[in-house]
Design a protein that fits this description.
mainly alpha, Serine Threonine Protein Phosphatase 5, Tetratricopeptide repeat
């Protein structure tokens, strides 16, 4: 970025202008020293160049050009402080002295005085707003100082100043993605596509970003463009179908998969997506039909058996789910979903021994599964192994302080056991704070207040719970019990009169 000093007609003329008030013989002598210094600089003899420039400065201390050359010589000799001083003098003499400011900024960067360098480059940018070097320098400084938003804005400014600066967009995109600024990253991708609308790599990135940002229309457009460039693919069809489902356009979601199925009727990913979509739409007949194709064509793939179990359980037929899965559980012993579904199905038929076995198997495969841990805690609670259930609830809460279900279930377990009621109250309050419209959580909180003999508070929460789920038998029982006890408490006792 720093320009090399050289003898040009412009420098010589400006030098004579600087010396307009001096005697002609002094100006000739100063010019002689200046030119000698430049010659020595070009020869790499910086020490002697300093002496010549210093003589020139003595003859005319107000010539900014001489101070710049002297600063350059000192800089190359490693005398940074002296170089910095002469650059500041040059800038004071001529605030628009570009070379001095560039050299000073470079010194600040080497000293890691990034704030000072930033100030200098901002001044240079004000002088020449279209200079890409200055814009990139400001962007790089912002990145060094981890001012990511500012860095991105400068890189985009560089591109907007001159579209050949595409590398600025690359830097901006990397920063935006690395700092999870996905909205900005999506915006930057659109800049790329203005230059190259057929860039598949950018289109794929834009698709993923748009999906994350829930900008589904943009994601559809990106997929359509990718299909236009590269042709249809099962992966893109599945994604497009999922987007239409998010947009609640069920017909389009199905049509996209059916079109892909016509192109490749033996693709298990398409078949499985169709089954899951029909299950979600409660079109069980179609789900079963396509799942039978999976079972027939891909007997060694666990997805067909998983789908059979999910369909059975959605029809409240856990026995059929167990029948579908149990005969294949050993074959798929390392498949989390099969082990988890078996455990859940056994739990639903109250076979807690087998439920524990399969849920523990599932947790060995995927220890982080919240659903498996919740179900296991419920089983331990049901069979009175409370130390184990309490430990699981505490682990769930410690792992995720927003797990409202863990707070609620632990609280209800404690109040039903009649222990640690005050602690149970705090747990229940957390559950309601996290999900204030949950009928079950409001019921738990009301029931705890009842156990604490706070009938008014209890009724407040139980009534709200009933307003959300008026058909729930447990909530209704709690409400009736509280009303009954409240009535008995308020009924005055009659004193018997002795005969």
């Amino acid at each position: 970025m720093i320009k090399q000093n050289g003898i040009t007609l412009l420098v010589i003329l400006s030098f004579f202008v600087d010396l307009k008030g001096a005697e002609i013989d002094e100006s000739e002598l100063a010019l002689h020293h200046f030119m000698q210094g430049e010659f020595l600089m070009n020869q790499g003899n910086y020490a002697l160049a300093v002496l010549e420039f210093q003589d020139a400065v003595d003859l005319d201390p107000n010539a900014a050009t001489i101070h710049v050359s002297l600063a350059d010589a000192y800089r190359k000799l490693g005398k940074i402080k002296r170089s910095e001083n002469h650059l500041k003098i040059a800038i004071e003499l001529d605030p628009d002295e570009i070379e001095a400011q560039e050299m000073l900024a470079e010194i600040f960067i080497k000293k890691k005085d990034y704030n000072a360098a930033k100030i200098v480059f901002e001044k240079l940018h004000d002088i020449d707003a279209n200079n890409l070097d200055y814009i990139f320098a400001l962007a790089d400084l912002a990145r060094i100082q981890k001012n990511w938003e500012l860095a991105i804005s400068y890189y985009i400014e560089a591109y907007n100043t001159n579209s050949i600066a595409i590398n600025g967009l690359e830097q901006a995109l990397q920063i935006a993605i690395a700092t999870n600024d996905f909205l900005k990253a999506e915006e930057i991708c659109n800049y790329f596509l203005k230059e190259d609308s057929d860039n598949s790599k950018i289109l794929l990135t834009l698709k993923d970003l748009s999906l994350f940002n829930e900008n589904y229309e943009a994601a559809i457009k990106a997929i359509n463009k990718l299909e236009e460039i590269n042709g249809n693919s099962p992966e893109l069809s599945i994604q497009k179908s999922a987007i239409f489902e998010k947009l609640e356009d069920q017909k389009q979601a199905i049509d996209v998969l059916l079109q892909s199925f016509e192109n490749d009727s033996n693709n298990i990913d398409i078949l499985n997506s169709l089954v899951n979509l029909f299950i979600d739409q409660k079109n069980i007949e179609q789900a079963v039909m396509y799942n039978e194709k999976i079972l027939s064509i891909f007997p060694d793939d666990p997805r067909g058996y998983v789908n059979t179990a999910i369909i059975a359980m959605s029809n409240k037929n856990p026995d059929k789910a167990i029948l579908s899965l149990s005969q294949h559980s050993d074959k798929f012993s390392s498949n989390f979903t099969i082990q988890y579904l078996l455990g859940t199905a056994y739990y639903q038929i109250k076979d807690y021994i087998n439920a524990k076995i399969y849920l523990l198997n599932a947790l060995k495969i995927f220890p982080q599964s919240k659903n498996a841990r919740h179900n296991l805690a419920l089983i331990y609670d049901t069979i009175s192994e409370w130390e184990k259930s309490d430990n699981i609830y505490m682990e769930l809460i410690n792992d995720d302080s927003t797990d409202a279900q863990a707070y609620n279930n632990y609280a209800y377990s404690l109040v039903e056991r009649g222990i640690n009621i005050t602690f149970a109250l705090e747990l229940a309050k957390n559950a309601v704070r996290l999900e204030p419209k949950s009928a079950a959580y409001l019921d738990t909180l009301g029931w705890i207040y009842y156990k604490l003999s706070s009938h008014e508070e209890a009724l407040k929460y139980i009534r709200e719970s009933l307003s959300i789920d008026p058909e729930n038998a447990t909530i209704r029982e709690h409400f009736d019990q509280i009303i009954k006890d409240k009535a008995n408490t308020n009924t005055p006792k009659l004193h018997q009169v002795e005969n």
